[in-house]
Amino acid sequence: MTVFPPVTTVTARPAPLRRDNIDTDAIIPSREITSVGKTGLAAGLFAGWRYRAGTRDPDPDFVLNDPRYAGTAILLGGPNFGCGSSREHAVWALHEYGVRVVIAPGFAPIFAANCVRNGVLPLVLDAAFVDAPLTVDLAAQTVVQEERVWTFAIAAEAKTMLLGGLDAIDLTLNDAPAISDWTARDRVARPWIYIAAAV
Amino acid sequence: MVAPIPGGALIAVDRLFLHERMGSVALQALAASGRKVADPKRVFATMDHIVDTRPGRTGTLVAGGQAFLDATRTMTRAAAIRLFDIGDADQGIVHVIGPELGLALPGSTIACPDSHTCSQGAIGAFAWGIGSSDAEHAMATGTIRMQRPRTMRITVTGRLTATAKDLALHIIAAHGADGGQGFAVEYAGDTVRAMDVEARLTLCNMSTEFGAVTATIAPDDTVIDWLRGREFAPKGALWDRAVAAWRTLASDEGATFDREIAIDAATVAPMISWGTSPEQSVAFGAVASSNAYMSVTGTVAGLPIDVAFIGSCTNGRLSDLRRAAALLGGRHVAPGVQALVVPGSSAVKRAAEAEGLDRIFIAAGFEWRESGCAMCFNAGGETFAPGSRVVSSTNRNFEGRQGPGVRTHIASPETVAASAVMGVLTDPRRLSAPSLAA
Ligand code: SF4
Fold first, then answer.
1. C-alpha angle with apex A153: A25 to B126, nearest 5 degrees?
2. What residues form DSSP beta bridges with B84?
3. B310, B342, B401 from B368: Cα distances, Å
4. What ipTM, to 2 d.p.?
5. Relative to the CA of B8, which of A63, B28, B151, B418 has its CA 20 to 30 Å away?
6. Quick check: A180 contacting B, CB < 8 Å?
7. What is the DSSP string of chain A?
8. Closest by alpha carbon to A48, among A30, A34, A35, A70?
């Protein structure tokens, strides 16, 4: 089962959002999460910065309200991007807005894992880009802007999942026999793990 | 480990904890995909994030929040998952009740769609925060696909006169909010060994503010004695077998780590944050930088506060409340300061009331609440006025964390109590209390 479009090559003029420690509360404030689902979140993306306080009027100083960057598929973040709450809504909001790649010097681990589950490439790279379109090629692990080319590293599993648009649950269920064998052995070795609950 | 995967492993999840804010989303997505919960006996749910904490509560004050409570109830019932609902004696903040109920056990794997799951590593577990998709995955398969983290050991030695919270802030301020990024952190050293379990939970709690994937402390007699007899802990012969297994878990002396950090506990003083990242924290007496959002220039001690908040998965346990109450006895909150205590669990609340702590807090001018996350974060419910300055025993001082425009200073419960009394950010050592006299 494909759960999201594969990420292969993405070309866009990246929106620079080079602050340190951009947290998931900033990416989507909790008060913007008003239904028990994964959609309807793009309007709340960066709501605290994107709109004037207490309104839905765009704040012209915020980068995504600049027509050159509005709707971009690539964001440039600062160190420790996506820190804070584990809320996957941050990634769902980015994806729904159209972001497919976030390039930053470093990512908070839960945010990076959430990206890979949802067709957003968390690309670790600390480079001095210019204000011009760039192309990310996941298969080749390159970022190209004008005449310059950077390479980046990515875990093999993340690359496979993103390139294939793969569903992690389907992939794991291929190992269902290994899981049940392991659990049967573990029930004998650590029975106290399995006796806890009573509804 | 069930099976290897590229760069990591498929690992069995012994305990999956859900809360109404994220668990409901995962449960609903799982149901929509037509998949079933593989082993509901290893899944537990609680109501903590958006529940009302005022006395006599019935639901939530968050607009649209009732749908999350309703979905959690319906979905856990349908999947035969144990839910600690409002009114249940075991209800509380997920990272408080996991250890308290003996659900978190040494050597177990614990996952929860919440970043502070790393708290529970203090029990000697492998506990880490996940997203909703991975929670769905854990329910459907009983496992999680995990990349192997790098390893870091933080060895703390010497006598700690400040609190575990101060130690956590000291580490983050010294090494950065991404200092532990991607690492599994183990806390070690005689200072850590001497800490009680609740202090260890506080220390491990803030490892996510350090960027770590998870944190752990090798299980020892302190943990084992603390777990004995807890509601869901094994009993009788099974307890003895479990303890024998747990005693073999400590990482061996010669273990190597990708990174080592050494901390001299004597250099740790009461800390206070001044900016909008936990790394922007200083010891009282040291000079802070400037931060426009926080309206801070240079010095934080002495800044007038509007609110004092004690609670959260970081510092909402019984020992936290005891230490704050010890400072408050016979004193009163300064005029104009709103002060609240929100116990971390219903059990903490009952235990505190049995000791009379509630009466001390109320006499001092604090509100005494029901358990939950409350104003640790803002989901659109109860909050403080924009621009108000809050001293808070919570873990995040992000811009807007406690509400739009709200300025949060994170600190220990002692610092919150002392500041509440003085009406300004106050080094708790300035207030004499038997428990703090050096
Ligand atoms: S108390 Fe705060 S940090 Fe802890 S789980 Fe609740 S909202 Fe998260």
1. 55
2. B46
3. 10, 7, 22
4. 0.95
5. B28
6. no
7. -B-S----EEEE-PEEE--TT-BHHHHS-GGG--SSSS-S-GGGTTHHHHB-TTS--B-TTSGGGSTTTTT-SEEEE-TTBTBS---THHHHHHHHHT--EEEES-B-HHHHHHHHHTT-EEEE------SS-EEEETTTTEEEETTEEEE----HHHHHHHHHTB-HHHHHHTTHHHHHHHHHHHHHH-GGGSS----
8. A30
Q: What's the gap between Cα B240 and its chain centre?
A: 29
And the tokens for A70? 């509005």
Q: Calculate how far, in angstroms, residue B373's C-alpha sits from the geometric centre of ligand 1.
A: 5
- Which residues approach ligand 1 with their CB closer than 6 A? B 48-49, 93, 95, 114, 116, 312-313, 373, 376-377, 394-395
* Distance of CA B396 from the midpoint of ligand 1 (Å): 9
pLDDT for the residue numbered B433: 54
CB contact under 8 A, A199 and B80: yes
CB A85 within 8 A of CB B22: no
Q: How far apart are the first and last CA of chain A?
A: 33
pTM above 0.90, yes or no: yes
Name the residue facing A25 among B64, B233, B400 (closest C-beta): B400
B158-186 residue pLDDT tens? 999 999 999 999 999 999 999 999 999 99
Tell me which chain A residues have a C-beta less than 8 angstroms from the C-beta of B98: none
